[in-house]
Amino acid sequence: MNRVEIRSGFASARIGGLSGDVQKERLKVLKPVYDSEISFDFLKFAADGMSFVVASDMREKLESVLRGLGVEFEVKGDRAVLSVHAVNMRDEEGLVAKVVSQVIESGANIEHLGEMHDRLLMLMGESGAAKAKAMLLAAYPEAEA
Q1: CB–CB of 1/143 below 8 Å?
Q2: What is the pLDDT of residues 37-77, one digit of tens each?
Q3: What is the pTM of this model?
Q4: For 50, phi and psi rounded to 5 degrees?
Q5: What's the rounded Cα separation, in Å, for the pair 119 and 141?
Q6: Per-residue burial over 117-127, b = 16 or more CB atoms within 10 Å of its CB, e = otherwise
Q7: Which residue segments constitute the domains of the chain, with CATH numbers given?
């Protein structure tokens, strides 16, 4: 592991309770979000809905759009992305599982996880991200903050 970073200033949205043709129902949510010029990351589909992350300054606008649609939703503020960088992370056997386990042991609640060949991106509350970062830096002193 060579670097651990925190990017703050996010809100996470979860839309649920979609039924019938869930694909069409997702479009009924995504189109108004797009039309409102709200950008998002970490899009994940669930059996009855979806979730994604927006910049904190878009939270109220997103909530207004979702309320107008009458869908079941929850938006949580004070979210951060903890980025753990390691060259060829997937090639080092067990490293991803070890890092994720350590983050969970720190008390952080991972809400979304994205994995790439050289990094893990984990969405969580800002306080959890700070605890996880401190734990990882103590476990991997060679890593940069």
Answers
A1: yes
A2: 999 999 999 999 999 999 999 999 999 999 999 999 999 99
A3: 0.89
A4: -165, 170
A5: 17
A6: eebbbbbbbee
A7: 3-8+79-139 (3.30.2130.10), 9-77 (3.30.70.260)
